[in-house]
Amino acid sequence: MPQVKDFAHRLARAVAQSDPDHFTAALPKAQRKGRIFVDYLRNQCGATAVMPYSARARLGAPVAAPISWKEMETITTGRFHVGDAAELVKRAASKSLSGWGRADQSLPDL
């Protein structure tokens, strides 16, 4: 639906504008460096996203894993793969990732 894509795009831009040091809605990878890409294109028919702790179908079987804000300062590429299962289980229970999927916030009035 065009309306959903339009809303998702406007929301991504609003998030990026509210904290440009941490978020971006820019498509080119060169413009995303060091920031979280708010991917509004995953809200359309046929688009897919990877759930946390899922292995990706790529060379080396990298694993999508949540990271802390502190880690955002140093991580430049994916660093976990399926062989890191024990470390990932330990990280999931760590204090630094406690409540990583929760947020006490409201959406902006667009």
TrEMBL record:
Protein known as: DNA ligase D polymerase domain-containing protein
Every DNA ligase D polymerase domain range: 4-91
Pfam families found in the cross-reference section: LigD_Prim-Pol
Top-rank taxon: Bacteria
Residue intervals passing through the bilayer: none
Native species: Sphingomonas chungangi
